[in-house]
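Because discrete structure vocabularies remain unfamiliar, we turn briefly to a single example record, giving the amino acid sequence and backbone structure tokens:
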Amino acid sequence: MDNVAMLQRAVGETSRLLEGITPDQLANSTMCTEWTIRDLINHVTGGATMFAISAEQGSVPDELVGQLMGGDNLGDDYKGAWAVASKRAMAAFDGPGALDKIVKLPFGEMPAGVALNIAVFDVTTHAVDLARASGQDVVDTELLDSALDMGKQMIGPELRQPGIFDSEQSVASEASAEDRLLGFAGRRI
């Protein structure tokens, strides 16, 4: 399966989970210890917009990076904001020649295909974070396994730092796909 299709599956799973999150759950804590559910939705929404802009324009203007990575990207409609951002990201990566570009993200310059893989890993990992914080499950285990494989190819020691990816946590080989992905991402499970 191609990686654009994997991003579509990650977006679909995240969208399904968001539909199950009620406004009274937005203040729930998450496995991203400094973020609530609302903070996490804000992060993936800003990230989807950032990846979309990089695929569309080659880079994200400096004046937008702070907003996308730390400002309010949701307003009063967390589900609608995610829907707009995720559709934009899907369209940007699915466009003709999109994966042939070199893009610049806040953490480096890379082929658009690598940025796409980072997006799949990030969105899928945060989908599991959202599921756990809201009492739901990610049901697409093939997506979880693919995201873990992508993460193992991309996440090296230089990215292992608090607030990005903590040290990999030991997880039994027979653990669920969710637990294996979270353990690799440094979540304490």
